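stage 2 :: seqdesign
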């Protein structure tokens, strides 16, 4: 690979995060407009209504495990190990994050757990790939 293929999955994941922030704004506006909560309640996230809290949690999840994803993608690129298996793994991880976020928003605990576990395994394999690449190059 000769280009920036390793970074397209990063952009796709960032797009997911921006979409979740947009949804959070919409949900918070809805609960304020309905009178369920005062706008000031969001300053310190006290008593956030369920409708917006689930979106807020989905956003928080995108800054936990994916931190390791961003690091391994950059390191794979630097080590010139960003070949087809690595790029495919990165896309698979991002797909798992999209599914996990959607399942969290819809309340499907079983598929949320499965998509999280799939992403976890894929991410682990990306790190193994990096380690093997460095060890045998």
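stage 2 :: out
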């Amino acid at each position: 690979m000769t280009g920036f293929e390793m970074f397209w999955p990063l952009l796709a994941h960032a797009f997911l995060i921006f979409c979740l922030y947009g949804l959070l704004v919409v949900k918070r506006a809805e609960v304020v407009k309905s009178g369920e909560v005062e706008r000031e309640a969001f300053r310190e996230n006290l008593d956030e209504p369920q409708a917006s809290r689930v979106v807020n949690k989905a956003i928080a999840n995108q800054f936990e495990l994916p931190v390791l994803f961003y690091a391994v993608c950059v390191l794979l690129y630097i080590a010139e190990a960003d070949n087809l298996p690595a790029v495919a793994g990165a896309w698979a991880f991002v797909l798992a994050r999209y599914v996990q976020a959607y399942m969290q928003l819809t309340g499907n605990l079983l598929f949320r757990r499965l998509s999280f576990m799939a992403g976890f395994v894929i991410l682990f394999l990306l790190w193994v790939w990096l380690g093997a690449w460095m060890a045998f190059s």
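stage 3 :: structure notes
- The first helix runs from residue 8 to 33.
- The chain is about 75% helix and 0% strand.
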